[in-house]
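Problem statement: downstream parser choked on a complex file, so we are re-checking the raw output for the nicotinamide-adenine-dinucleotide run. The parser issue turned out to be on our end (a line-ending mismatch), but while we're here, posting the original submission so the record is complete.
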Amino acid sequence: MSILVTGGCGFIGTNFIFDWLAQSDEKVINLDLLTYAGNRLNLSTLESDPRYQFIEGDIGDYASLLARLQEYRPRAVINFAAESHVDRSIHGPEDFIQTNIVGTFRLLEAVRAYWRQLEGDAKAAFRCLHVSTDEVYGSLEAGEPAFSETNRYQPNSPYSASKASSDHLVRSYYHTYGLPVLTTNCSNNYGPYQFPEKLIPLMIHNALAGESLPIYGDGQQIRDWLYVSDHCSAIRSVLCAGKVGEVYNIGGLNEITNIDIVYTVCDLLEELVPENMNSLASAINSRRSPQARGFRGLVTYVADRPGHDRRYAIDASKIGRELDWRPEETFESGIRKTVEWYLQNQSWVEAITSGEYRNWIDTHYR
Ligand code: NAD
Ligand code: TYD
């Protein structure tokens, strides 16, 4: 038996594959296009493991995907592959339309063709799980109830609109063709292997470089933060026991403002950098301007993101009630693990922050 994961060289996919193989001997086939966000080296320790197979491929390539499905005959497909960064979707929405909408459509077509050829128990047990985001529901005002699965879709960025479209396509393949799909809509993840264009790893990276910490607008936007391993366990629960055709919202019960996230990161760095990395700390201190008061002194308010959603919050009561899932990490434990991981894996960040990443920083922040 095996599962096929798409986008497994990205942040959540990498964590999911490690997590899966830590708990199961069931083979994972990882199909990834290796865009700027995909890093095959994340999983290099698995390359010689017979339970793991990497395939470079595009979810938008119907023929090749179908051939792979027929070759490996997975019992499930889990679709993580996507363009995932809101700011990039504002600068250039085209890739988001191609991968998130057209790509998901072609993936669904290939999966449908494969599933139709299955028989008996294999056909009955097959599942296609689509990983999506809470951003499809739009923005909440203070005091409004958290997003539940029945909330109206009101996406506000090209990213969330493209994910919303993909969710609609997935839903339609269940209602029209009976394809056994499951959809998960999750809040903001954080943890190891997150590309340093996203808030938390960007702040860690900039702080360690003694560079400014750019806060969009007033920094009072709220996200519901979930440690990535909790997202992985939720996906496993939905895959194992979720009801076909249903949607499950996944959240961390951690509504926190952006500025509080950044201050927490700064304070953890103050605590951990001198202890663990004395030479790094003195190098950073020598680069800091005299008026900077520790890492918090690097905070800089910058122009707001266009169409910036004010607040996301997830009502995760359905997955709790029906599948007995709840997050294990508190924000305090998860953010500490995250900062520690980045401090211990500076070479991973450095490998990324050369090349294309530099161009992004220049385009977006300067
Ligand atoms: P990521 O950007 O880190 O990784 C995306 C991966 O998909 C990369 O490895 C990339 O190479 C691959 N990919 C891109 N286009 C592809 C294509 N056409 N074919 C095959 N592979 C392709 O993203 P992530 O943060 O790991 O997010 C994974 C999924 O989870 C996405 O669907 C995202 O919308 C969703 N999600 C993310 C978050 C979050 O906070 N990161 C929250 C909720 C939902
Ligand atoms: P991000 O990590 O891009 O996730 P998303 O947009 O999917 O929620 O951003 C999280 C929040 O942090 C969001 O409100 C935008 C804000 N943000 C900043 O204030 N500064 C930054 O440099 C970045 C990347 C994000």
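For whoever reads this later: The pocket of nicotinamide-adenine-dinucleotide (ligand 1) is lined by residues 6-7, 9-13, 32-35, 37-38, 58-60, 80-82, 84, 99, 103, 131, 133, 163, 186, 188-189, 195 (CB under 6 Å).
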